[in-house]
Design brief:
By secondary structure, the chain is α/β, with parallel strands linked by helices. The protein has one domain (about 5-140): Flavodoxin domain (Rossmann fold, 3-Layer(aba) Sandwich). It has helices at about 15-30, 60-65, 90-100, 125-140; strands at about 5-10, 30-35, 45-50, 75-85, 105-110. It has a five-stranded parallel beta sheet, sandwiched between helices. Strand 1, helix 1 and strand 2 (about 30-35) form a beta-alpha-beta unit. It is globular and about 40 Å long. The model has no long low-confidence stretch (mean pLDDT about 90).
Length: about 140
C-alpha cells in the first residue's frame, strides 16, 4: 500500500542532512523542511526525520522539534541518520518518539564525515541509498 501523506524534516550543521532530505523530498514529491524554521506538522501518515550525529548526539534543535511533536498527528516515523562511523543512530530522537507512542518503522544509517574522516561523504551513492530507503517505505507500509 502506497503512503501518500508524507513529510520530511531535517536538522543540519554541515548541510549533509539538508542534501539527503532534499533528495528524499524530491523523490517523494514533498517539501523538505528545516526544523529551525519551526514547521507545523499536520496530520502525517509517515514522517521522515533526517539528522546527523554531532559529538555523539543529535542536534538540540532536532531533539526540541521531536519533543514538541503532537503524537496524535503522526502515524509513523522513519529516521535517516548521517554519521561518520555509520554505527550510531539517533538514540535520543528514538527515545522521545517511543515515549510519545509514535512508531518508528526503520532507521537508515547513512555514511557521513567528520573533518577529514570519511571526507566527501555522504556522496551521491550514499544519498541515493537514502532515497531508495524512503521509496521502499513509501511503497511498503
Amino acid at each position: 500500500m502506497r503512503v501518500e501523506n508524507i513529510r520530511v524534516v531535517y536538522a543540519t550543521k554541515t548541510k549533509h542532512s539538508k542534501k539527503i532530505a532534499e533528495d528524499i523530498s524530491l523523490a517523494l514529491n514533498v517539501q523538505a523542511q528545516n526544523v529551525t524554521d519551526n514547521p507545523r506538522v499536520e496530520e502525517t501518515e509517515l514522517l521522515f526525520i533526517v539528522g546527523g550525529i554531532y559529538g555523539g548526539d543529535s542536534l538540540p534543535e532536532l531533539l526540541n522539534f521531536v519533543h514538541d511533536l503532537d503524537a496524535k498527528k503522526i502515524g509513523k516515523a522513519a529516521l535517516v541518520t548521517s554519521c561518520a562511523s555509520k554505527k550510531q543512530g539517533q538514540t535520543k530522537v528514538r527515545k522521545i518518539l517511543e515515549e510519545k507512542g509514535i512508531e518508528i518503522v526503520d532507521e537508515l544509517l547513512c555514511q557521513g564525515s567528520f573533518l577529514f574522516f570519511k571526507w566527501g561523504r555522504p556522496n551521491q551513492a550514499d544519498v541515493q541509498e537514502a532515497v531508495d530507503f524512503a521509496r521502499r517505505l513509501q511503497e511498503g507500509l
